[in-house]
Amino acid sequence: SILRFAQMGLGSYAERVGNAVKESTRAKITGLISGSPEKLSKFASKYGVESDSLYNYSNVASIKNNASIDAVYITTPNALHCPNTIQIAEAGKHVICEKPMAINAKEAQKMIDACQQNGVKLLIGYRMHFEPITLEIVRMRQRGEFGKTLFFQGLSGFIIGDPSQWRLKKELAGGGAMMDIGVYSINGARYMLGEDPIWVTAQETKTNFEKFKDGVDETITFQMGFPSGATASCLSTYSLNYLDKFYLTGTKGFAEMQPSTGYGPIKGRTHLGEIQKQHITHQARQMDEMAAIILDNKVPEIPVDGQEGLKDMFIVDAIFKAVKTGKKINIQYEL
Ligand code: NAD
Asked: Which residue numbers are catalytic?
């Protein structure tokens, strides 16, 4: 069967997902939610969405009565993920919410609770969890091909443009580069090493105080420690381009990915040579797999549920605390 979903927040990523979904064999856009009537009609004609499946932010609760919509894919600014998710859960629809799941662990937990109470599933837009080269490296690590993995390096960044965009406003973004791009290194460290960090240390540097106001991080370097004794060293920045690299190393081998999380093609190389896989459109594969998770209860190799998103938010909270206090912060994974 087909997952019929509505898009909420019709910005640039919604458009990318909308284009990709044409290649999906299991997902289809059957509804749209936007504050802009122009965007609603533009996207509706592009995707062939019926006029009775178009909503704005004031009447979206009535999506409850729309039998042609199974789920809502939220691509609004970060700070809206929590209120939007709660609203959709209360309307009885499954939620696919973009990363970062929320702007802190407390909000992420509220989202999980709302979805649980309303009997709907909550998935986070972790497209890399379905990407073939990533999965091959994770399987190699699981088979022990790298030996005992003891170190991960994650570099995530790009030079951000327009200084007036929501990504540079704390109220809407919840932070700066860390929330937007640093989360790829956090999440990547976890799936590449296959464990969750127990402590973090972090340092912030700023070169442009005008563009990156209080609470909006430009550059953060951070380190994480894991139960096995492995460590990770990461960089999150809005001031360097083409920064998209993962490096995993163990006692018997290594894996290097560059680019590691961009839209692709992803490149992966290990001590055994280059990993050859055909490039797939990430968002198309993601929607095929998410349809199977929602409709068939398929269990993905790397989780994409609310608990997975919540872990990343606990780590982000700890990193911000480490920056502020200058101290090593132990991560508790509970509120
Ligand atoms: P964008 O600015 O292009 O789109 C955001 C949309 O939300 C706009 O259409 C805007 O009109 C709408 N919106 C609704 N309420 C708003 C409000 N109160 N203030 C401002 N805008 C409001 O941003 P984007 O790049 O599409 O990012 C959207 C989300 O998707 C973010 O959470 C981002 O982290 C995520 N994202 C994920 C990926 C990925 O690869 N998984 C890539 C890009 C973006």
From this structure: 99, 184
Q: Is the CB of 164 under 6 A from ligand 1?
A: no
The Å distance, Cα 73 to ligand 1 centre, comes to 11
Q: What is the assigned CATH class of domain 128-280+305-330? A: alpha beta
Segment 64-92 mean pLDDT: 98
Tens of pLDDT along 144-196? 999 999 999 999 999 999 999 999 999 999 999 999 999 999 999 999 999 99
Instruction: Write down the domain spans for the chain.
Output: 3-127, 128-280+305-330
* Best of 13, 128, 158, 183 for a ligand 1 pocket test (most atoms within 8 Å of beta carbon): 13
224, β-bridge pairs: 200, 232
Evaluate: CB of 84 within 6 angstroms of ligand 1.
no
What Rg do the C-alpha atoms of the chain give, in angstroms? Answer: 20
262 pocket-lining for ligand 1 (C-beta < 6 Å): no
Q: Pick one of 3.20.20.80, 2.40.110.10, 3.40.50.720, 3.40.50.620 as the CATH number of 3-127.
A: 3.40.50.720
The single residue listed with the structure tokens 């919540």 is 310
Q: Which atom of ligand 1 is nearest to the CA of 14?
A: 26
216-235: pLDDT as tens digits: 999 999 999 999 999 999 99
Ligand 1 center–CA 307 separation, angstroms: 22
Specify the ligand 1 atom closest to the Cα of 13.
26
**Nearest ligand 1 atom to alpha carbon 180:** 34
Nearest CA to ligand 1 atom 29: 75
Which residues does 16 contact at the CB level (< 8 Å), separation at least 6? 263, 283
ipTM: 0.99
Ligand 1: centre distance to CA 9 (Å): 7
Contact predicate 283/17, CB 8 Å: yes
